[in-house]
Amino acid sequence: MTTLLQLNTSLFSTGGQSSQLANAFVADWKDANPDSNVVVRDLATNPVPHLTGERFQAFLTKPEDRTEAQNREAAVSDELVAQLQAADVLVIGLPLYNYGVPSTLKAYFDHVARAGITFRYTATGPEGLLKGKKAYLFATRGGVHAGFPRDTQTGHVRDFLAFLGITDVEFIYAEGLAMGDAVAKPALEKATLAAHRLASRVAETRLAA
């Protein structure tokens, strides 16, 4: 059974434009894969705590050596890691906030980057341990940034996923959403159509495999 993990990271929860694009894709995915397992985590309604020194130390401590408090601290990360390990497909609704990722997504990233579990250090550098997964990202922006040096978000997310071993990554952008209806409406329509087409292409690829 294929498992899809969807992360909605908009501060507006399901009302966010990035969440709506991700939802459009996932709805088509479920129609094409009725036996698949879809897990949704909304980081607005179910946020991940920001990393602290105490929590990070709990990650580093061997399970058998942890205190009760450290077990509680590590349990959040363990749950998130298990979800990500079990997923074959990762879908992220990704708004751009102040030229970066939402802080809730950064907190999520900090909790799933676990040495020896989701990546490991080798003599030639780090190696991701979550290989063989596919990621689809639905990125929404108030301005127009894709393809310009100021779009540091795309590189950051792509590099982080590669750090974990997820290198098969595809972005769909909806930009200019704060530039008036004349720009925003067609941009959203184009991105929504792209999401539907992407789901159809993925379904066709799976059938041909």
Structure, explained:
- The model has no long low-confidence stretch (mean pLDDT 95).
- This protein has 209 residues and is α/β, with parallel strands linked by helices.
- Helix content is 44%, strand content 20%.
- It has six helices and seven strands.
- Belongs to the azoreductase type 1 family.
- Its EC number is 1.6.5.-, 1.7.1.17.
- Unreliable spans: none
Order of helices and strands: EHEHHEHEEEHEH
- Calculate the mean pLDDT score and round it: 95
* CATH fold descriptor: Rossmann fold
Taking Cα atoms only, what radius of gyration do you get, to the nearest Å? 18 Å
**Superfamily (CATH H level) name:** Flavodoxin domain
Q: Number of DSSP strands?
A: 7
Sequence of strands across the biggest β-sheet: 2-1-3-6-7
Which structural category fits the helices and strands? alpha/beta
Helix content: 40-55%
Largest sheet: 5 strands, parallel
Which CATH architecture?
Answer: 3-Layer(aba) Sandwich
Through-space gap between termini = 15 Å
Q: How many distinct folded domains?
A: 1
> Approximately how much beta-strand content do the residues carry?
15-25%
Shape: globular
CATH class term: Alpha Beta
How large is the count of helical segments? Answer: 6
Binding site for FMN: 10, 140-143
Protein name: FMN dependent NADH:quinone oxidoreductase
Organism: Usitatibacter rugosus
Subunit structure: Homodimer.
